[in-house]
Design a protein that fits this description.
Radius of gyration: 23 Å
CATH topology of the domain at 182-253: Arc Repressor Mutant, subunit A
Distance between the termini: 68 Å
Helix content: 40-55%
CATH architecture of the domain at 182-253: Orthogonal Bundle
CATH class of the domain at 182-253: Mainly Alpha
């Protein structure tokens, strides 16, 4: 086979440069926090949410109309839709939406209207991921949502408290995007304790005991296999209470 001509060599060089550029662009665009990582069932379990509730936020929900059936569009858009597989940032969005659940239930239509109103007035895309939720942006969202569902003054105070408790469990990075979540230990838990974390850069984004980075699933599996709390505490260099918290988190309904 003959040696490549200068023109061919130039073509090879251009193609190679293009491949390198595309690879570099992909690496630059890749963010583990915004890539598919959690099935609906996993995400619901980690957030202590009913799977049906999370599904309605991610997939949408049908509702009866005078003529036929209507469809509420989803509030959360995962990177993978068929089947829906959520990213870490989707977990954050669902975690924030969880705080807006009230005894009246969550209206997808009213939530969508409140989010659209706040995003339009504040010029913020994906408001549920924005650190501004702790200040003006959060206040605008809550006030609009409260008006839409005719929430009483006392109800709005309770919702504000729940909202703030949820936001305290999110850590934002230097670019004001969520980088870590400290989920509640159980579906009804409001304790200030934060022994468990979900970090997309640790243990493939699975829940861990913060102090040692040990998977909560691994701890629960070993307990189910017959090992004792004290044995695991010694193995991992954790306190027995931390082992118990990991099991509580994994087994909470």
């Amino acid at each position: 086979m003959s040696d490549p001509t200068p023109r061919q060599e130039s073509g090879y060089a251009s193609e190679s440069a293009c491949m390198v550029a595309n690879s570099t662009r992909r690496e630059k665009d890749f963010d583990p926090r915004d890539t598919s990582a959690y099935t609906l069932i996993e995400a619901a379990r980690y957030l202590k949410l009913p799977a049906a509730t999370l599904r309605s936020w991610v997939v949408g929900r049908s509702y009866p109309k005078a003529k036929g059936v209507g469809q509420f569009h989803p509030l959360i858009r995962p990177p993978s839709r068929q089947p829906p597989v959520l990213s870490f940032w989707n977990l954050i969005e669902a975690h924030v939406l969880r705080s807006l659940r009230t005894e009246h239930g969550v209206s997808l239509q009213d939530l969508r209207k409140a989010l659209a109103f706040a995003e339009r007035n504040l010029k913020i895309k994906r408001l549920l991921l924005n650190e501004g939720l702790r200040t003006e942006a959060g206040q605008v969202l809550l006030e609009q949502y409260g008006r839409l569902i005719n929430l009483s003054a006392s109800g709005q105070l309770a919702m504000r408290r729940m909202f703030d408790e949820h936001l305290k469990r999110v850590t934002w990075g230097e670019f004001q995007v969520p980088i870590r979540l400290y989920p509640f230990l159980s579906s009804a838990s409001e304790t200030a304790a934060r022994p468990i974390a979900i970090d997309p850069l640790i243990a493939f984004g699975r829940p861990i005991v913060v102090r040692r980075g040990v998977s909560t699933q691994a701890i629960a599996d070993r307990i189910d296999a017959g090992e004792t709390v004290d044995q695991l505490a010694s193995d991992y260099g954790l306190e027995p209470a931390e082992i118990e918290e990991a099991v509580l988190y994994e087994r909470a309904a």
